[in-house]
Amino acid sequence: MGFRMGIVGLPNVGKSTLFNxxxxxxxxxxxxxxxxxxxxxxxxxxxxDARLERLAEIAGSRQVIPTRMTFVDIAGLVKGASKxxxxxxxxxxxxxxxxxIAHVLRCFEDGDVTHVEGRxxxxxxxxxxxxxxxxxxxxxxxxxxxxxxxxxxxxxKEAVQQERLLKAAQAALEAGRPARTVEVEAExxxxxxxxxxxTTKPVLYVCNVGEEDAATGxxxxxxxxxxxxxxxxxxxIISARIEEEISQLDPDEAQMFLEEMGLKEAGLDRLIRAGYxxxxxxxxxxxxxxxxxxxxxxxxxxxxxxxxVIHGDFEKGFIRAETISYEDFVTFGGEQGAKEAGRMRSExxxxxxxxxxxxxxxFNT
Length: 365
Description:
Layout: E1 4-8, H1 15-23, E2 41-46, H2 50-59, E3 63-65, E4 68-73, H3 88-96, E5 100-107, H4 122-153, H5 157-174, H6 189-194, E6 203-209, H7 219-231, E7 234-238, H8 240-246, H9 251-260, H10 267-278, E8 281-287, E9 291-298, H11 303-310, H12 312-316, E10 318-324, H13 326-331, H14 335-340, E11 345-347, E12 358-363
Parallel strand pairs: 1-4, 1-5, 3-9, 5-6, 6-7
Antiparallel strand pairs: 2-4, 8-9, 10-11, 10-12
C-alpha cells in the first residue's frame, strides 16, 4: 500500500506547480488565476529508497519495484468554501478521500502572482483553510447526529458509538479545535476513522519559498514552523519552482543543480519522508532473482497483516515469516549469507514488522 496525500491551499500558492513537479506531468494547469484546477488531478510517484536498489544489486534481481505514493491536487479553497463559496462543496468532498493533507502555504513575495487576500501571511492562510474545514465538519456532524436518532432509540450499538464520537468531535470543534485533537481509545479507532471528518486528517504544512530561500527558509516559513510545532503538526520547506526545474532534468543534471542551490536532496524526498513520519508508515522488502520490491505498512503492523498487503491469501493462511534485517542482508551478502551466519529469523503471528525487514512469507493455500 502507498498512501494518498491531498495538496490543498488557497488559490495561487503554488499547489499545481508543486503537483506538476512531483508527478513529472503537466496534468494540472498552473495558471495565475483562481480555480485553474477544477477536477482533482491524481498522480502517482515512486517512493525513492536507496535500500531497494542495494538489495536488488546484491540479489541480482531482474526488476526493481518501489512502493508508490499518490498525490491529489485539489483546487484552491477560499473563505466561505464550507458554505459553497468558489467550488467549495466539491473540493471538501475530495479532501475526505485522502489519508493526509499537504497544506501548501505561500512564503514568497512575487508581484506577478496575485494573492486572493492581497497579502503574504501563511499563518493567516492556514487559519482560513482550517476554519473552513472545521465549519464543514460541524455542519456534517449536525446532520449525522440528526440521522442517528432513530437508530439510537432502537438500541443500535454502532449508532450509539457513532453518536458518542461525533459529540466528542463536535465539542472540540465548538471550542475552536480540530477533531484531530480528540483523544480516541483503541477500541474506537476504526469507528473514528470511518467518520471521515476533514479535521482528523494529519496535516503537513508545505512552505513554498522562493528559489533563494530553498536551503534556509525565511521569516514566513519560520512562522509556519512555530505554528506547526505548537499544533503537533509537521512542516517542510520547498521551492515549487526549483522542483519544477528539477523535474525536467536527468538524474545527474538534477544532482548538480541541487548542489548549486545548496540543497542535499530534492523536495520530493523530504516531502515523502515527512509524509511517512506523519502517517507512521514504514517499509519492508521482498527480494529474489525475479524482483526486489518495497511494500508500505503502518508502524506496529504484525507479520500476517504485512503478508496481507501482498495478497489476502498470504494473511489467511499465514504460517511464519522468514525475516532478515536490511543491515544483515547487506552485511552478509544476501539471503544465503545471512542464513549461514544465523541471521535469518523465523517469526510468527505476533511479530511486529520492523522498517527495512526483508521477508519471505510461508502460508497454507
